[in-house]
What we know:
Helix content is about 5%, strand content about 25%.
Amino acid sequence: MPVYEYEHLGKACPAGSVFEVKQSIHEKSLTRCPQCGQAVKRCLSLTNISSPKTNSELRDLGFTKLIRRDNGVYENVTRREGESRFMERGKPETMPNLSKTIKD
C-alpha cells in the first residue's frame, strides 16, 4: 500500500507540519489532518529508485553502455564475449550483438 505525505496549510499540529499516511491508491486524498482537523494538502514525495552502479551490473541486466571516445567511435564498456570493444560509425560488424540481450 502506498505511503502519501501530507502538509498542513496552517499552523502545524503537535505531530508536525508534514505527516505520512498509508492509503490505497483508490482512496481520496485527505483534506483534513486526522489528529487536529486542520486543512492539509498531499505533497509529491520522492520515490526510491535504485540504479545499477557498475558496468558489470548494467551488463548483467541486459543493458549496453557506450562511451564516446572520438568522432564516430564509442567504447562498449559492457561488452559481452565475442563483441567488439569499440563501435565505429560505418562498420556494422562492430555493433553490439543485441540478439544476446533482446528476447521475445
